[in-house]
Amino acid sequence: MSTMKAAVMTGIRKIEIQDVPKPEIKPDEVLVKIKHVGICGSDIHYYEYGNIGDYVIKPPFILGHESGGEVVELGADVKNLKVGDQVALEPGIPCGECEVCKRGDYHLCNDVKFLATPPYDGVFAEYIAYPENMAFKLPEGCDTVEGAMIEPLDVALHALDLAGAKIGESALVFGCGCIGLLIIKTLQAAGVKEIYAVDVLEPRIKKAEELGVKAVWNGKTDDVIEQLMKATNGRGVDMAFEAAGTVKTTQQTIAAIAKGGRIVITGMAAEETIPVDIIGLVCKEGKIFSQFRYKNLYPKGIKLVADKSIDVKDVISDTCRLEDLPEMFEKCINEKDKVIKAVVEL
């Protein structure tokens, strides 16, 4: 049996580089040599705690779901890809048969097989066998680093779709990690120029400033709502995006929006219950949208990156080889003030 190298989680905060069986493809699958994988916040959480809610890791387990690679073998029924094509892999494989799949909301499928979500292994490995219809060809000039970044970009694109962002509107983004920064970039590409941002970590605040937002406030030391009202003459913003995943920022979204404003909850706070100012929301006739992943956005994300509308590479702060992944996970935990986005090279 052929083998490949993989980063295998063997316990809480334990990853070993092991030889594991190389996958064999089915007729509708392609074998992809993985080239780049992004480290997501969910990967870090699984590594540090062993679970996210009811999803519990049972070692041995392989993390990683943001990937780009090269097709090296074709199944008998594959029609649209060829050996040598570079691809980005959409990590959720839906059933295609349930109610939500049939109405187009396949990201909400109860039976979705999502990479690196127990019990399904991820792609911190040299190869993966994957359905052709969820492997999206990268055009000329778009590399596999960008291919790995399409997944977080699609999270940002879905947030904008939910908010119904329009040219000339205003927005406040809570959290300037990878997703928050990509929301800023997608807002700018959509013609939203009046953007404010909030974070508590200086490197992220600095990065948001580099992107040209109107103002960035430190959530620990600044009265964010007071500063926002000064900046907007007491109006607030048309859209507030919660990408920090905290109770405080979730609560602040209601105070931040203007009358008739919209809120998108992209981040996920650890607390199951968050008290919010419903009366304040009602009096503004504000709208709250919750977000779960994305749908039907891989082709759009790839096009936006390929035509240089959105640069996804400049949010990457760290890279490492597969063999150095254990150390990179520890850095993501112990030096989170320095790491915005890490990408693994295989």
UniProtKB/TrEMBL annotation:
Pfam families: ADH_N, ADH_zinc_N. It comes from the Bacteria. The keyword Oxidoreductase applies. This is NAD(P)-dependent alcohol dehydrogenase. Coiled coil: none annotated. PANTHER family: SORBITOL DEHYDROGENASE (PTHR43161:SF9). SMART domains: PKS_ER. Its cofactor is Zn(2+). Residues 11-344 form the Enoyl reductase (ER) domain. Belongs to the zinc-containing alcohol dehydrogenase family. Keywords: Metal-binding, Oxidoreductase, Zinc. It comes from Candidatus Thalassospirochaeta sargassi. GO terms for molecular function: oxidoreductase activity, acting on the CH-OH group of donors, NAD or NADP as acceptor; zinc ion binding.
